[in-house]
Design goal:
This protein is 30% helix and 35% strand. It has one helix and five strands; from the N terminus they run E-E-E-E-E-H. It has a five-stranded antiparallel sheet with strand order 1-2-5-4-3. Strand 1 and strand 2 form a beta hairpin. The termini are far apart.
């Protein structure tokens, strides 16, 4: 199995995760700005993220907020 590649296109603010070099046969929209790319066997071969800067910022913020909440809950008062 080839090593996945992450490619960022700054002019378009698009992040692409290529799992294989197989041709894309179809795609599925996972959310407003995230698309899974599928091969002919309907296996995921890549993921494309539009507005990647905003997506990454929001995702990291959500993880941080979640972890901070768990930390606060486990800290004795």
């Amino acid at each position: 199995m080839p090593k996945p590649k992450i490619i960022y296109f700054p002019d378009e603010d698009v992040l692409h995760l290529a799992i294989t070099d197989e041709p894309e046969a179809a795609s599925i929209e996972l959310s407003a700005n995230v698309t899974a790319e599928l091969n002919a066997r309907h296996e995921v071969i890549g993921v494309e993220v539009l507005h990647a800067s905003e997506f990454m910022r929001d995702t990291i913020f959500d993880v941080f907020r979640s972890q901070l909440g768990q930390l606060e809950m486990s800290t004795p008062t």
